[in-house]
Hints:
Blueprint: E1 4-14, H1 18-32, H2 36-42, E2 47-55, E3 61-63, E4 79-90, E5 93-112, E6 126-134, E7 148-149, E8 156-159, E9 163-166, E10 168-172, E11 175-179, E12 196-198
Parallel strand pairs: 1-12
Antiparallel strand pairs: 1-2, 2-3, 2-5, 4-5, 4-9, 5-6, 6-8, 7-11, 10-11
Helix pairs in contact: 1-2
Amino acid sequence: DDDYILRAPRVMSYQPDHNERIRVASYIKQIIGGRRTVILANLPTVMSLWKKVRIRHGGDSIRTHSATRISAKQRNSSYVRYELEYEDRINGTVQIVQLVQYGRLEKILVCLLSNDTQWLGLAGKTLLLALIRPCQTGGRDATKEETRYSRNLVSIITDLRNVKGVVGRVESRGEWTIIDRRNSFAKPAFDGAGYITDESEAT
């Protein structure tokens, strides 16, 4: 199934700024290794920018921060739950640990890499990337325990497929409490082009 559908508005010839490119290069370095400066120098200068994504099969419609209008009547659907995996040695055995995070989805970038061998396993691939401003929640899971934060961290780039859905927030005395009512999450997949788009929504 193709669970993640990119939606307009979009900018097909978007030029990421220097900080965004550094974050993209850092993400790719985590996958293929090498020097970040070399990866940065060879990244495409133009990527497409999408401002909405819909998760199919009862999932959420997410509006990035760059597409969110300030309105008391409009729900802010740019805050999301995302999940990261990393290796950790536990009792002498390397295990995969899942880390639950929350943050504001800033932008969605589509990065087309060339067939150059420098990209190793990513050569010729289309990367769907999420630029997220994390909330400092200490890895707590709001479906299991009260999760609050009062500050945001430096923006990161991760795979869009790590984004699992929209969350709500309630503010009190300078702190925000995350409201996460999800029980199950979509398992994303992509077509041969590497990503799905929905041209039916023009605004």
